[in-house]
Specification:
alpha/beta
């Protein structure tokens, strides 16, 4: 049975999660990437959506208007954006908004890890190349804000069911799956090279 987080997310819902855990999301998922982060942190504008206890998605969706319904959209495709692009803003963004789950592609760095540790949030990756699968998890696009930023950068408020799989890459203790894997890889490489050098020689 898989673990499902439901928004709004409480600290108690995520404190037991560890890096490498696989979860799914039901409730609200709100797209928020480069320009929205810049507007909130650098331009000091209040988010047009209450993000406290919510989940954001580093993603630039392709949306299509629903025929005959003004201001109504459906998701065509919604692939994740590389999360590291938001690294310089994410710690402040977590503190300012109270967001609890950040979803994107790949991992994030020490700035975000510290923000997750201090403010009790988690980062999770959604597999790249699965944009249509992600779209199929969206039950409804409720509204869009900051559409002046363009379709990919706008804030899209969506209701999702069993959105995932999501792999926890940073947990509430600030542990970082990608950083841990990098250190392990470096250690293995050094051991392998040391062994290899005992069996080969070359001219200096």
């Amino acid at each position: 049975m898989h673990k499902v987080l439901t928004t709004p997310i409480e600290d108690s819902d995520i404190q037991s999660l560890s890096i490498g855990d696989i979860i799914y999301l039901t409730g609200y998922l709100i797209t928020c990437r480069d320009e929205a982060h810049h507007r909130v942190i650098k331009q000091l504008k209040e988010p047009p959506v209450n993000l406290k206890g919510q989940a954001i998605f580093h993603a630039g969706p392709i949306m299509q208007k629903v025929d005959g319904q003004e201001d109504k959209y459906r998701v065509v495709s919604i692939g994740p954006t590389t999360s590291m692009r938001m690294e310089k803003y994410e710690k402040e963004f977590i503190a300012k908004t109270g967001v609890k789950l950040i979803v994107g592609k790949g991992g994030m760095g020490p700035n975000t890890a510290e923000g997750c540790r201090i403010h009790k949030a988690v980062h999770a990756l959604f597999p790249g190349g699965c944009a249509v699968l992600a779209a199929n998890c969206v039950e409804e696009v409720e509204k869009v804000e900051w559409l002046d930023l363009g379709m990919p950068e706008a804030i899209w408020v969506m209701r999702v069911k069993d959105f995932g799989p999501l792999i926890i890459t940073i947990d509430t203790q600030g542990r970082n799956l990608f950083e841990n894997n990098r250190k392990e890889l470096e250690a293995r490489k050094e051991r392998i090279l040391a062994e290899l050098y005992q069996h080969v020689d070359y001219l200096a």
